[in-house]
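Feature request, filed as a ticket because there's no other form

It would be nice if the structure record came with a short human-readable summary line next to the tokens. Right now we just get the raw output. Example of a typical job, pasted below so the devs can see what we mean:
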Amino acid sequence: MAPILSQRPQGANDAASPDARVVALRAVHRAASELRRGTPILLSGPEGTLVVAAAETVSARGLAELAAAARGPAVLLLAPVRAAAVLNRPVPQALGAAAIGTASEMGVVALRLPPGLLDPAALRSLADPTAERLLPEQPERTTTPPQALPAIALAKLARLLPALVVAPAAESAAARLDLLSVQAADVSAYPIEAPASLTRVAEARVPLEDAPEARIIAFRAADGGIEHLAILVDSTAPGPEGAVPGAPLVRVHSECFTGDLLGSLRCDCGPQLRGAIRRMAADPAGGVLVYLAQEGRGIGLVNKLRAYTLQDQGLDTLDANRALGYGADERNFWVAAEMLRAIGVKRVRLLTNNPDKLAGLAACGIEVEGREAHQFEGNGVNDGYLETKARRMGHLLT
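Raw output as currently delivered:
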């Protein structure tokens, strides 16, 4: 899973004013949006500036802009597992990102777009393991450029495949192209700074089938990104000092469009969601269901569908995520901790089978009094999925 975040990473500007932090959050959010649109951005740090484009979305125009802004050869950045597949040999996982392609050949391809190499279709196939085509020629490793890890992190924030075309930037040329610039330190700080800026933006009583007194509170970060929800079930309410008394049942549930809404049999998310609400409604202390916009353990719906394709080809849920270039779990539990604090919940009985959630919330300052088991029988379709969660991810399903 993604590292448990208990303090601000080095590089975050603790002395910055609140307005400066908001500006930094917005810059990261805008940069992620630019990558999704296929537009290159500039990523700056103490070791220099990269011009960066997402292999999944970049168009011919975007590649031309990248070439015009570059002052050196372009390389393709991939997460280690994907790089190993492209290279057809192992790549150490500790690298975090690998730059592949012959520096000269890929540079020519990046700048001059010869057919068959650095064109949008070829880049998309290199980024996506559900596509069959790789580089026409055996690629070679080259030196990983500075800001490689923040670049990969930015692609993940955009819910894109972590595959990027990058080159050292000629900043004067980049300025003429009016490319958006973002600081690498702000990208690295984003996983904590964005949750810390969450505010309540709407709330209403929403009677549910199994919890007629439920109330939903929506939270949004200062970057204006996607909202997360807290579903307060029945008697969970702050006391006179603003804190919820006792330790209510809490479930941290990541949204699952296919399971929660469509009733997919591939996972157990739908039964866990509805079962949690029933449990909370029956509990004297009530409960809170923290509904996080972190689909597919943080990789997004589109990438989850790609992972399903890889599972149909024989990979389990863990290896499918890794083949896409993602970790086994990319979620950020700091978001859940900030939401619980905002509604006055400091102590919880956590409804989960996942020990990482226990550790994650505790590391973020929430007192976890205990775990309440929350498992459901397999349905004949998801039996292998449940077995993988127990055997390889440590979920407590026995």
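Something like this underneath would help us a lot:
Residues 1-16, 101-117 have pLDDT under 50 and may be disordered.
DSSP finds 16 helices and 13 strands in the chain.
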